[in-house]
Amino acid sequence: MKGLKCTTNNCEHNDHDHCMAGIIDISESAVCKTKLKREGGTLSQIFAEYEAAPDIEMLEDVETVVQCDADCVYNTNRMCSRENLNIEDSVIRTKCFSRKKPV
Ligand code: SF4
Ligand code: SF4
Questions:
Q1: CA torsion through residues 74, 77, 78, 83, sign
Q2: Does the global pTM surpass 0.85?
């Protein structure tokens, strides 16, 4: 998918709210298992983004394959079938906030 937005403030794969990992793995509890914390923490992400001006068009074109183990209406054979995905930091982990549990 092209519409993945991730607003985590501490991941090596994150560039201006876009994920550059290529393939990500979402757990049963919708946590991003591909997250890789930066050695310098959140400050290092702020500095990295400050130094590199974003090429917005290039970022919008990034394709991400989303493998997922969560029980969710958008899960098709362990692949996410949504067009857009919001991933955000929660209190403890970085999770998929687009998850919709089947009724
Ligand atoms: S937390 Fe996950 S979705 Fe967000 S940038 Fe890192 S690897 Fe990508
Ligand atoms: S929307 Fe559902 S299927 Fe897609 S990544 Fe999130 S939890 Fe997984």
A1: negative
A2: yes
